[in-house]
């Protein structure tokens, strides 16, 4: 799993300053854009936010049990939640 998380973080580097769409699926469902996304990692928490810092999401990487890196990124969390991250600039 550590290899997949490392690949996920490397993919986030490539998405830095891009326009992305976040979708959360599971017991709570939502979606929102992050314009010119910036991210940071601190103590196993990844925070992605837009350039105004008004829209953001934080994910505890210890809760991620699987990662899919295809057209869009999918993070599978322990609480039956899927976080999808899509690059809207392509």
Q: Taking Cα atoms only, what radius of gyration do you get, to the nearest Å?
A: 12 Å
Let me know the average pLDDT.
Answer: 93
Give the name of the CATH architecture: Roll
Helix and strand pattern: HEEEEEEEE
Range of helix content: 10-25%
Q: Major beta sheet, specifics?
A: 5 strands, antiparallel
Principal-axis shape: globular
CATH topology: PH-domain like
Distance between the termini: 28 Å
Low-confidence stretches: none
**Category by helix and strand content:** alpha+beta
* CATH class category name: Mainly Beta
**Strands of the biggest beta sheet: in what spatial order?**
2-1-8-7-6
Into which percentage range does the β-strand content fall?
over 45%
Describe it.
With 90 residues, the protein is of the alpha+beta class. The protein has one domain: Roll (PH-domain like). It contains one helix and eight strands. The chain has one helix at residues 2-15, and strands at 20-25, 30-34, 38-42, 45-49, 56-60, 64-69, 73-77, 81-87. The strands form two sheets. A five-stranded antiparallel β-sheet has the order 2-1-8-7-6, covered by helices on one side. The chain is globular. It starts with a helix and ends with a strand. The relative contact order is 0.25. The model has no long low-confidence stretch (mean pLDDT 93).
Concise summary:
The chain is an alpha+beta fold and 90 residues long. The chain has one helix spanning 2-15; strands at 20-25, 30-34, 38-42, 45-49, 56-60, 64-69, 73-77, 81-87. It has one domain (2-87): PH-domain like, CATH 2.30.29.
């Amino acid at each position: 799993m550590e290899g997949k998380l490392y690949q996920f973080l490397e993919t986030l580097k490539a998405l830095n300053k891009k326009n992305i769409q976040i979708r959360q699926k599971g017991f709570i469902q939502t979606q929102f854009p992050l314009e010119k996304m910036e991210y940071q990692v601190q103590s196993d928490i990844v925070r992605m936010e837009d350039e105004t810092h008004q829209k953001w999401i934080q994910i505890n990487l210890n809760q991620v049990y699987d990662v899919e890196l295809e057209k869009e990124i999918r993070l599978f969390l322990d609480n039956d939640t899927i976080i999808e991250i899509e690059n809207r600039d392509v």
